[in-house]
Amino acid sequence: MEEERIWKIGMYIRLSRDDGSEESLSVSNQRKILLEFVEQSFRGAHSLEEIYIDDGQSGTDYDRPDFLRMVGDVEQGRIDCILCKTLSRAFRNYADQGYFLESFFPRHGVRFIALGDPPVDTFLHPEAVNGLEIPISGLMNDRFACRTSCDIRRTFDTKRRKGEFIGAFAPYGYRKDPQNKNHLLVDPEAAQVVEDIFRWFAYGDEEEGAAAGGVSKAGIARKLNEAGIPNPSAYKRKAGLRYQNPRTEENDGLWQGSSVAAILSNEVYTGTMVQGRQRVISYKVHDRVEVPEASWYRVPHAHEPIIEQELFALVQELQAEDRRRAPGERKNHRFSGLLKCADCHKAMTRKPSRGIVYFNCSTYKRKSRERCTSHTIRLDVLEEAVLAAVQREIETAACGERLVQELAQVPRKQTAKERRDQLLKRHLCALERTRELEAGLYADWKNGDLTRSQYHEMKKRFAKEAGRLQEYIRQLRAESAAREAEEEQSEDALLPLLEELKKDKTIHSLPQELLARLVKEIQVQERRGREKGELTIWFRFSAPLMEAHVGHMAPGQQEPPALLG
Questions:
Q1: Tens digits of per-residue pLDDT, 380-403?
Q2: In this structure, are 366 and 442 located in the same domain?
Q3: Is 96's pLDDT higher than 60?
Q4: What are the C-alpha distances in Å from 68 to residues 74, 75, 92, 358, 390?
Q5: Three-state DSSP state, 15
Q6: Could you tell me the residue range of the domain that residue 118 belongs to?
Q7: Burial letters 453-478, b for 16+ CB under 10 A, else e
């Protein structure tokens, strides 16, 4: 007799910001309903393995943190049954619903259960997925999300035109009015810092005898850090606000030139409300794009100013004339993203001086000289040391052939390509399913399952959805083709170097394309007096090639870099 299957259940709960305070959709209520179902109504032996909760996440997004964690657990076999309150809790994206219900879940042997209307159980009633009710419900959920997004956009645009603040957190220097969350009040403590920033940049710091010239943005950042003033993000969290952004964990609470520049360029400090500088691409694609300045919403005298209009105008003129930064380059420097300070683990900053390029710790250079030291290294010394270390590792391990194979077989951007391919596959499946449903409507009408008016209405909806999917697929393919062309160009640049490695069992140069493949991170140690400093290089290729330590000389020393034993 076949042993009874024990289902490994993962509960999925999602609450969107758009759901508001509706109690029936609260996280606690969804959990209560699902637990009650498992205890009283679940058919089959089971064990509850995990509860996945995405709080404040839109159902149109695929990149929901706990949803992705759940997908990973499915792939690893930790769960094989997913339970949620309704279809819309798991999916408000028609393409995603079709992909997971008809492709991903069946391939991984996953039972999917939704308790709402229509009820879904792909194990007990697998035929329901192939009928009309579930796809139509998914399409309606998708359209509901679209209408909701349009309604919210119209509401926000109305508020913007009236000069009402709609952001989640007030700009640094202001706080939200407790009586009206769309109105800004001056925050005296932070406003004083804003005034100092503008005054120092425009007129200098009279206390330090710099009245004849303004303080640079990096200089202002150092002054604020030395005074122990937290940067805007740290200040908001210190005030008890639940402020988060994608780089919150990396934020060390210190000011830097870019945060000073953002304040100096923000017209909100003159009392003018400026909003709508960016917009999301669509209700499904939440990436932000810049909006032309002519389309911004600008409302003067919306709140109390911190900076006079004349001072703000002067600062903008000074910024336009600022030539202190190096001219921008389209391509990053070869060590961009690789070079880190060994002590504070922040990036190294690049600065030319008298024809020689130096790297210094960015914390020391741009933020505070009390938090770290300079960790200075010259570019020419760095290049020689890294090349020597790579050559030594290759020769020591005698792995030329293996390294060639690894470099040739593992593209740098494989993960991004796989993600694009997966997204395209989901929408192709959705398009095929939509066409199948549209083709089946006629038979349903003739059989009496649909009235004539229902037939024409559904045919119109499916045709519209197919057209939208076709346009989205066209855009995805165009973007993929452009990205792949860039990646192929990068691959072509590597071919001569791979041939050189095959022939000579070593390499003689390190262009950016190869450096990014070979090296994961380079840490620069501080020098002690006239002693050599040290580089710690972490390689990407297989063990035993993992880490190398390389000595580097102080600036001005002529001895070439030597490998440390």
A1: 888 888 888 877 766 655 455 555
A2: no
A3: yes
A4: 10, 11, 15, 42, 37
A5: strand
A6: 6-147
A7: eebeebbebbeebbebbeebbeebee
Helix (H) or strand (E) holding 49, with range, is: strand 45-55
| Residue 11 CB coordination number (10 Å) | 25
33, 85 Cβ separation under 8 angstroms: yes
Tens of pLDDT along 417-432?
A: 666 677 778 778 888 8
Residue with tokens 């149109």: 60
Residue 168 is assigned to a structural domain of this protein: no
Q: Which amino acid is at 265?
A: S
106 cis-preceded (ω within 30 degrees of 0)? no
Query: Do both 142 and 184 map to the same domain?
Result: no
- What's the predicted TM-score (pTM) here? 0.45
Give yes or no for a contact between 171 and 266, defined as CB atoms under 8 angstroms apart: yes
Q: Is the dihedral of CA 165, 168, 172, 174 positive or negative?
A: positive
pLDDT tens, 521-564? 888 888 765 556 688 888 765 443 344 455 554 444 333 333 33
Quote the tokens at residue 355.
């024809």
Same domain, 394 and 439: no
The C-alpha angle 236, 254, 377, rounded to 5 degrees, equals 160
Q: Which residue has the higher pLDDT, 330 or 277?
A: 277
Q: Which amino acid is at 91?
A: F
What is the rounded CA–CA span in Å between residue 260 and residue 221? 7
Do 103 and 244 share a domain, yes or no?
no
Q: Positive or negative, the Cα torsion across 231, 232, 238, 243?
A: negative
Instruction: Give the strand pairing for 81-84 and 111-114.
Output: parallel
CATH number at 285 reads: 3.90.1750
CATH number of the structural domain spanning residue 91: 3.40.50.1390
Same-domain pairing of 121 and 61: yes
H or E element at residue 84: strand 81-84
Q: Are residues 107 and 22 in the same domain?
A: yes
Q: Both 352 and 432 in a single domain?
A: no
